[in-house]
Backbone:
């Protein structure tokens, strides 16, 4: 997903284009990591005085609903990042400090499928938390 694709998705679903929305998406494209609503507010409030946490949060939830952003909860706080553009099934290693992610292409579900029996699995979530190389180094 990139900004252009995201704006196209919005247009197709009948949502209005605004500078604010484009700036939010650009921020996610530049940062390439999980951001909290307050990070987005911090980055944009200089340009948009009077921008509220509510507006940011509503837009982030909308982006997430439209599949533009992925969301997760890190240490009790909702965080968002651009949805991955790859269709290959994968999972994320997530740095709880800076929000950067890394892909892992093996899936722990492979091991569970047999034990599911007659239970019909429709999906699963699996995330691994820790510290990325940079943040890990800062901690020692
Ligand atoms: Zn991914
Ligand atoms: Zn990190
Ligand atoms: Zn999986």
Residues:
């Amino acid at each position: 997903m990139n900004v252009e694709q995201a704006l196209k998705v919005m247009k197709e679903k009948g949502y209005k284009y605004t500078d604010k929305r484009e700036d939010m998406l650009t921020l996610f494209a530049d940062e390439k990591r999980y951001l909290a609503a307050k990070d987005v507010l911090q980055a944009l409030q200089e340009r948009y005085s009077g921008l509220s946490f509510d507006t940011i949060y509503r837009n982030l939830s909308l982006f997430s609903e439209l599949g533009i952003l992925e969301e997760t909860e890190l240490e009790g706080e909702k965080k968002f990042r651009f949805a991955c553009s790859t269709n290959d099934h994968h999972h994320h290693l997530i740095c709880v400090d800076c929000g950067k992610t890394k892909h892992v292409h093996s899936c722990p579900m492979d091991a569970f499928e047999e034990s599911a029996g007659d239970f019909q699995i429709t999906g699963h979530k699996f995330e691994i938390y820790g510290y990325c190389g940079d943040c890990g180094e800062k901690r020692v």
